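Q&A log
Question type: sequence-to-structure
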Amino acid sequence: MSEITIPYTAVMKFVRVPLALQQAVMRTLRQKLAQASDYLETTFPEPCVTYRQRGTIAGSAHLQGWEIRLNPVLLIENQQSFIDEVIPHELAHLLTYHQFGKVAPHGKEWRFVMETVLKVPANRTHQFSVDSVRSKIFIYYCRCQQHELTIRQHNKVLRGKSCYLCQQCKERLKLLEQDKSSTPQSENFA
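Response status: OK
Response body:
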């Protein structure tokens, strides 16, 4: 196993996940998978783990592909707490799907797998700082207020693919000229 180079953010920066950190992820994944196999008396295949989750999301489980995607930036910044929380959380989604089929993402079946099978608190969201992975936002305005648009929305406006209207005054949003030295930050989670 070697270091994996993955892209993140809209500007496609590359983040290398150190080999020791990848190994720690796999150790925890395998330990939790064995724990689930023993408890549920079922053998589960090892999920594919990739490091290509972007934005403020720590990880995601892709059920049909039996894949766990991890955010390399948040992993590197939070290491052991990330491994202890995110790996079981995403694995629980896969195990829940395997055992119960399509159910509510954080419903009673998922909570059962988290708390009873994996012995981990069933937290739905992470509490990691996301300052380093927040996307740039663009301030638009209408006659009644300011609006925050994501870089994706802003690019659609620039390409002429979309225009956005204020839900209050119904006026078309206009870009507020920004100081080129400042980078506004959004407080929203993806």
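Response note: The chain has two domains: 19-124, 135-175.
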